[in-house]
Automatic annotation (TrEMBL):
A Pfam family that the UniProt record links to this protein: Methyltransf_11
Alphabetical GO biological process terms: methylation; sterol biosynthetic process
GO molecular function: sterol 24-C-methyltransferase activity
InterPro entries to which the protein is assigned, alphabetical: Erg6_SMT_methyltransf, Methyltransf_11, SAM-dependent_MTases_sf
The UniProt record lists the keyword Phosphoprotein: no
Protein name: Methyltransferase domain-containing protein
Organism, as annotated: Methanococcoides vulcani
Length: 208
């Protein structure tokens, strides 16, 4: 599989290859997700939206943290919606978790609904990131938190180690400055960024 096909299947997983990508992400991104989540305070009664929920493992991590709250996951891939629902079956049946087929650009929620919105390994593929960040901001409560966690970002050693990904269409890899500028343009405030360059890990926290 060439690099363009790898990016395409990660951007919108479908079929058997897409399902395998979702299962792989569930297994291999656990430590990244836990590291990212550790940057924010999550109350037991928080309402959380996970945008681009993929195979649903991050949803399950979040659901375990909000016993008195609720977690929604959205993904524009019907394959991932099915996989995330399957993984979280008991929580879905009890209505503690809800998984919905939806793009980030048109979230099916009212204004000011969520305490926290998370985005793990997904911003690379958003069609219009500033406008999509505005849509995320719309569904956050006042003083709500957006948490972005990625395992690839532009830094001093990035291009040398990850050059196949830097010029592929349909995938945008951002620097810390890019995140700050985009979040400011989308109306967010109080942006904080933590990096682990040797792992290519970045966490971005912004407030509405």
């Amino acid at each position: 599989m060439d690099i363009e096909e790898v990016v395409r299947i990660h951007a919108n997983p479908s079929g058997e290859d897409g399902r395998n990508v979702g299962l792989e992400m569930n297994e291999h991104h656990y430590e990244l997700w836990k590291w990212g989540i550790g940057h924010i305070s999550i109350g037991q009664d928080s309402w959380i939206l996970d945008v681009g929920c993929g195979g649903g493992r991050a949803v399950s991590i979040l659901a375990d943290l909000v016993k008195a709250g609720k977690v929604y996951g959205v993904d524009h891939s019907s394959e991932m919606v099915g996989l995330a629902t399957e993984l979280n079956r008991d929580a879905v049946d009890s209505e503690h978790v809800t998984i919905i087929h939806s793009p980030v650009s048109e979230l099916p929620f009212p204004d000011d609904m969520f305490d926290i919105v998370t985005a793990f390994e997904t911003c690379y593929f958003w069609p219009d990131i500033v406008e999509d960040l505005k849509e995320v901001r719309r569904v956050l409560k006042d003083d709500g938190t957006l948490l972005i966690v990625n395992e690839m970002y532009e830094h001093s050693n990035f291009g040398e180690r990850n050059s196949p990904f830097t010029d592929v269409g349909g995938m945008n890899i951002f620097s810390p400055q890019d995140y700050g500028d985009m979040l400011e343009s989308a109306g967010f405030s109080s942006v904080e960024i933590d990096e682990v360059p040797e792992n290519n890990w970045i966490t971005v926290i912004a407030k509405k």
